[in-house]
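Chain A, query sequence.
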Amino acid sequence: MNSLVGSFVFPLNSRNVSYFSSGYSKSTKKIVTLFNSKKPVCCSVAPHNLKPPAGDFCSSNFNDSSVNFFTEDLEETDVLIECKDVYKSFGEKHILKGVNFKIKYGEAVGIIGPSGTGKSTILKIIAGLLTPDKGEVYIRGRRRHGLISDDNMSGLRIGLVFQSAALFDSLTVRENVGFLLYEHSRMPEDKIKELVTETLAAVGLKEVEDRMPSELSGGMKKRVALARSIIYDTTKDAIEPEVLLYDEPTAGLDPIASTVVEDLIRSVHCKGEDALGKPGKIASYVVVTHQHSTIRRAVDRLVFLHEGKVVWEGMTHEFTSSTNPIVQQFASGNLDGPIRY
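Chain A, predicted structure.
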């Protein structure tokens, strides 16, 4: 199985989707052949007719004349993603053993737990890169069938940012960030360049458009990958809300670079402001991490996975005061406890 690294677009309506790795970035022509979708969606998938819940959340352009929430329970209309009794194995290795949780509109959720307990696996299942062996995943109340090639699936744009930025090493920063717009939108080139510059500025990067990935630091690569995930076609009639999934976004970074990325994750959320002082556009996000700084700075609610199951859920401020022995051991880093290595 190929290593899945980087961040990119996952078109839910494509028949066949090839996955990306840094090894494919030898030429633009080779990259283009990886796309089999006729209409890929930039980084992320929410119905245009869906109105966000009232409150402090960000606003988008919605037509609410024909609202369809795909569910009979009106109290559940703000649920974007739901995992019900999800199982996943790789050969004889059982990774997920009945995972249940929900992600609601406006939430900043962290998925934490010991290494090898299925955190990245559940993230890839939500994104559509893996299919569960058993159980169900719902996107806006509609069950996802199969892999990412759901013919009739719509309702939420889902972007996935992997551990490594995995920028295409033969392309400039501008070409990396604007890749899908250059290849699959009708925007004129000068407009794409302008939008790329604006998106990079939103993540705190200026005058790097003509640099190659090899000229960037690790933290800068992470920010370029995020810019590539949040850019979208501004010529569309409506801008859909989206969920970003981050897999270990601060892995391999020093404490200061980690703080920059953690604050950046907050800033692009609809409750925050980006580097330009504009409101964020990400409806919700999920962060897989085991970094305590990321837990403190980047998320509000936590889902704790252990041995393939959710063993605890709570707000971030409850993490260090939990009486759950598994959570206590993880929070303290104590060698004595139910978590064994």
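The two ends are 25 Å apart (CA to CA). The chain has nine helices and eleven strands.
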